[in-house]
Amino acid sequence: MIEQWNYGNTGVSMAKTTVELPETIHRKLRVKAALENRSMNEIVLAALRTYLHNFRLEPEMLEVETVQLDRSPKRNVSKEV
To answer: Residue 74's pLDDT is what?
Structure first.
């Protein structure tokens, strides 16, 4: 289940998530945010919006909870007795 909350007074429903970043990327993000007087969240959100700009979310995709990490086809596994 996704935890949702409202972002400030914007009325925009947000989902909270955890992202694991390599230490060097995290450091660059933290420094760039400080230099630009922005939050790390703002920068990550802007980058994700750019990345997902042309992606269309179809109604049948709303039920998707997770994505298979490896690109191999899914296999049905059954126990033999």
So the answer is: 54
Q: Which two tokens stand for residue 75?
A: 């296999």
Cβ-based neighbours of 7, under 8 Å, separated by 6 or more = 13, 14
This prediction's pTM: 0.61
CB 21 within 8 A of CB 33: no
Q: Which CA distances in Å does 81 have to 27, 75, 76? A: 53, 19, 16
